Structures are given as structure tokens and as C-alpha cells.
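Entry:
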Amino acid sequence: MTKSKKSIVMHGTLLAPLVPGHCAYLRANGSDYRTSPVVAIHEQSGDLVHFETLNSNHFLSMDPFPLAAASPLPTVLAACA
């Protein structure tokens, strides 16, 4: 029998794009949060992100600029010479 994961519902913004295998960074209720590693991204729309971490299912109602943080742009940093 598997233990069900808790569900966390928050209203806030992503501080960085979601990347499976990496922690999610978000701001909600005036605080910054770092989750355990993301294992799945179930839904990304203009106003809601539903993703799963090792420990929980997260439902983040996005505000006020949702698409800026949810953009699937590459997260590779370039080295400076």
C-alpha cells in the first residue's frame, strides 16, 4: 500500500522555471519557498501550475505575471571569459 502525498494549494508566483529533477522556487504569502525535487509537471496554464515533488502535490495559482516564470526557456548558464 502506498502512502498518498499531501496537497498544497498556494497563491503566488514561480521564481524560476520548473525543471524536473530540481527544486521549485516560489513566493507565496510574503515568503519564499524551495520544494523538494520536482518529479512531474501535470499542468501549466496562464493562471495555474500543478506539479508534483517527492513529498507533495502543489497547486500554485499564479499572480501577477504567470508566464514570465513558467516559460520553458533553457536554464543553462553561460561561462564568462
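The beta strands are 6-14, 23-28, 31-44, 48-53, 56-62.
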